[in-house]
Amino acid sequence: MNTIEIDQIKSDLIQWLNDFSATSDKTAIISADSKSYSDPVDMAAAQLEMDYLFHVVSRKGLNKKNVLNALRKIDDGSYGYCEACEEEIPINRLKAIPDARYCISCQAQLEKIVA
Known about the structure:
Blueprint (H helix, E strand, L loop, with lengths): L2 H32 L5 H20 L4 H13 L14 H6 L7 H11 L1
Helix pairs in contact: 1-2, 1-3
């Protein structure tokens, strides 16, 4: 895994972290504003915008805790290694799922256990 690829992933993770913060701030503002709407159409529009913002964050499949954990691992040098078998996680997997904690094989085994 080269440093250019890791730097790009780190940059993406930081951007997503900023998006989470901005989205939660905006959601809080919309939520507070929606209480003051007496018109049902305005309330519905505010609710629709909140739902959309939630969807944007959810669609990324990441959450703040996982992003922070991945950034911590990048900083301490443990990023990109499976937490189960300690083998290197392929860079294509990390590009697709930057907060991946397990290699594909170990992730599949975990999903079998849970299912």
